Amino acid sequence: MLVNTNNRTPFPQITFDMKPGEMRKALAGKLQSGAISEQKTFLSPEERKALDHRWSHTVIHGVMEFSEVSGSILKDIEASKGSYDYSDTINAAGYAYAKLYAGIQKRHEDPNEKWYRSAGGEELTLEDELEWLDNAFEQEIAWKKSCAKSAAEIQKYCRAEIPEVPYREIEGIEDDLYEARNRYLDLYHRDSAGLALQDYRFSSVRSFRWPVMK
């Protein structure tokens, strides 16, 4: 923050050389390093401890979080196999759901531990997080069906590789994704420590090339 005292107004003109978010991060870093004392920031030790607890217990889910987890799993599959197919894509999504689900359950194991939507926001419950996860999974389903439809239409209308767009097969992608999710959840509930990627096979898509989605 810069204070300009060269003007003739009754109060000094104050200009900010950092954005609010940058200022907040800089202040948090100084607090944690001890460069600024509690007295200078008007925080008592108890207030600082409460604020640190809030920050460490704040969970903000990103819009692309599910896709990023699924994509990372798929990238590992591609690295190990050299390529991936339709079943690999479905497995990656099902496994991603179970991994995120397991993380949410672990976070809420202690009923006395509270989590928050933001450092100064309302409480984030187990039900809230599971609702987010289900919505993210449904968005992933819609995205994969949209990509498959576009790929099939290109193969039919632009390349004449298939006679018709297999809309029924494309709708079957949703069934496969839910089946994969349920299989991985079953693995988690039977042995949470043994949750791992499986090689389940799915066959809803047969008559056109499954698009490679990265």
Features:
214 residues, 57% helix, 3% strand, 6 helices, mainly alpha, 2 strands
Explain what you see.
About 20% of the residues are buried. Residues about 1-20 have low confidence and may be disordered. The longest helix is centred in the middle third of the chain and has 33 residues, at about 125-160. Helices cover about 55% and strands about 5% of the residues. It has a two-stranded antiparallel ribbon with strand order 1-2. By secondary structure, the chain is mostly helical. The radius of gyration is 25 Å and the shape is elongated. The protein has helices spanning about 20-35, 45-55, 65-80, 85-105, 125-160, 165-190; strands at about 1-5, 15.
Give a concise summary.
By secondary structure, this protein is mostly helical. The chain has helices at 20-33, 45-56, 65-81, 86-107, 126-158, 167-190; strands at 2-4, 13-15. The protein is elongated.
Uncertain runs are 1-18
Q: Percent of residues in helical segments?
A: 55-70%
Structural class: mainly alpha
Largest sheet: 2 strands, antiparallel
Q: State the oligomer.
A: single chain
Radius of gyration: 25 Å
Strand residues, percent: under 5%
Strand order of the largest sheet: 1-2
Shape: elongated
Distance between the termini: 43 Å
Q: How many extended strands?
A: 2
Order of helices and strands: EEHHHHHH
Mean pLDDT: 85
Q: Determine the number of helices (DSSP H or I, runs of at least 4 residues).
A: 6
